[in-house]
């Protein structure tokens, strides 16, 4: 997949018959086929991910697509790639460039498509802004608060990027009593097409499970449910489900009066073992993570530019705790501890933007 190969065109490709037909015929299926063919060829040639990414960068630059930290062009092109599939998508885009698509045509195509695969660490790192290291300078461990007022939270933590664990912050939530796998199954069965909406309009994170869709996850047999050899996450954007969920949890008592939470609920559920791998988010706000059941160890890693003054930290979040973390700044991963099922409810929160529906 070197530079010489990058200039070759497939004479049998429909996309090589003329510029207008190329643009019209480069469908999502075409891209997928190119991805698979290119991946097979790259493997046979023994190319490394680094070499392929270098080819991608050079190809994009040749088309005047900006390739630099926070570069909107590269961020747009790669916003849907994953660590596993990064090589495949990189090759596909290089091939598209080799078919003489302009940078504008490439961007227009990507903007018009659904994500081919989930987002990933490398792409999010390329697009994030540089962090102010004062948010972690001098921190030796994640601060833990057992009783905190809105004023203290606002003064020490809110909107600062500084993480904090609030102990027993959900002790009076109904969710602690009612939330389990079967609760969520019944909830989505109650509202027609709500499960399908997770797959089509929201996000389903399958992690290392065999579930291809959220609908598949809800069809698990009882033996599989009890084994707890699975861990998944999803976001909900069905307002019927949202209203039902809000009956079981409340706005965290320590949030400042001027803060608003997103209308999007995230739920993470599963058994002991690895949770989410190391990653960074792009959600434009800090988030609160309420541990409804089970225990989870969080590892938070400062951004690269802050490594000289900040350190990696671990914190254990128990049932009833809320962990507040700006996941746009801190790289993070989770590990589910042995014992009962882990269930976490997550919402992002920011200062005086929009409307809080909780």
TrEMBL record:
Which residue stretches belong to region Disordered? 1-27
Q: Which GO terms describe its molecular function?
A: 2-oxoglutarate-dependent dioxygenase activity
Q: What is the lineage of its organism?
A: Eukaryota, Metazoa, Echinodermata, Eleutherozoa, Echinozoa
- Residues annotated as domain Cupin-like: 151-306
Protein known as: Cupin-like domain-containing protein
Gene3D superfamilies on file: Cupin
Residues spanning the membrane: 76-97
Membrane keyword on record: yes
